[in-house]
Amino acid sequence: MSFQSGQTILFAGDSITDCGRDPLGEPTQWNPGAGLGHGYVSLVHAWISASNPHNFVRVINRGVSGRTVRELKANWSKEVLEQKPDWLSVFIGVNDVWRQFDAPTRKEIHVSITEYSQTLDELLAATRPQLAGLVLATPFMIEPNPHEPMRAKMDLYGAEVKRLAKKHNAILVDVQAAFDRVCAHRHPMEISWDRIHSATFGHMVIARAWLQATGQIEPSLKT
């Protein structure tokens, strides 16, 4: 599958998607990375542009650092619907889980798995009919031990993303599985200081998983 010339792909999410983007910037001939940040969105854009130079696909980054599904819903109309994308990629859930661990006493900012699932389901149901394609990415933790408490909860939220991907006929990007394959050979601290945010290494893992899931590159034979 290849994206068609003239189509727009919009990426929505949290700091992993944001990754230092200029909220007022748009890619130009002189500054092609403006507005895309320096993370996986920029890498995806670069690959699509380089591998299909005859197709002119616009990529929009609307990730916002610190965002949970609550903030995603509050800004959905302006940041997603009004942009009228052909393709939408949603990568949300890390903060929904994380706040339960780094701010355990601040119950008001915790997002339960029920609220998370219902809110995301609502947003997707209202938007899917307008899209040529939908991509959903699982939240993740760069932690190979599935019994570590935060990792275990992240997997539960990821399971909801997998369920919603089937329900809404979306392409699933299993980011957790992608990092698990890498962590079978590399220590998490080499990838990320806090097991969430990373430099280019980690973002390449995400970009590669995204490009494989959407059919832009062939899956590797190695695990």
Per the principal axes of the C-alpha atoms, what is the gross shape? globular
Query: Structural class, from helix and strand content?
Result: alpha/beta
Number of helices: 10
Number of domains: 1
Write down the CATH class.
Alpha Beta
Major sheet: arrangement of strands: 2-1-3-4-5
Helix-strand topology string: EHHEHHEHHEHEHHH
Low-pLDDT runs of 5+ residues are none
Largest sheet: 5 strands, parallel
The CATH topology label is Rossmann fold
In round numbers, the mean pLDDT is 94
Number of strands: 5
CATH superfamily: SGNH hydrolase
Which features characterize this protein?
223 residues, alpha/beta, Rossmann fold, five-stranded parallel β-sheet, 10 helices, 10% strand
Can you walk through the features of this model?
The chain is an alpha/beta fold. The protein has a single domain (8-213), classed as SGNH hydrolase (Rossmann fold), CATH 3.40.50. Helix content is 43%, strand content 10%. It has helices spanning 15-18, 40-51, 69-74, 76-79, 94-102, 113-127, 149-167, 175-183, 188-191, 200-213, and strands at residues 8-13, 58-61, 87-91, 133-137, 171-173. A 5-stranded parallel β-sheet has the order 2-1-3-4-5, sandwiched between helices. Helix 7 (149-167) links the parallel strand 4 and strand 5. Helix 5 (94-102) packs antiparallel against helix 7, helix 6 (113-127) packs parallel to helix 7 (149-167) and helix 8 packs across helix 10 (200-213). The longest helix has 19 residues, at 149-167. The radius of gyration is 17 Å and the shape is globular.
